[in-house]
Amino acid sequence: MPKGPDKNTKNKALHTKLLKRKNSKIQEEKKEKALRLKALVTKINQKKSSDDLKK
Q: Rounded to an integer, what distance in angstroms lies between the CA atom of residue 53 and that of residue 9?
């Protein structure tokens, strides 16, 4: 058996859990931002096309 203190796997598991939660939150925010931008772009394109038809 190796000498020395036991490894603290409880804190490591908690840290991993928190990091996964943080990364998933960041990914979700990126997806939401992309959807908002996509909606905004389509809205602007529709507005441009309707303005072109009026001219």
A: 66
Q: In angstroms, rounded to a whole number, what is the distance separating the alpha carbons of residues 30 and 43?
A: 20
Q: How far is CA 55 from CA 3, 20, 25, 44, 50, in A?
A: 84, 53, 45, 17, 9
16 band by pLDDT with thresholds 50, 70 and 90: very high
- Compute the residue count for the chain: 55
Please tell me the pTM assigned to this model: 0.65
Alpha carbon distance 33, 16 (integer Å)? 26
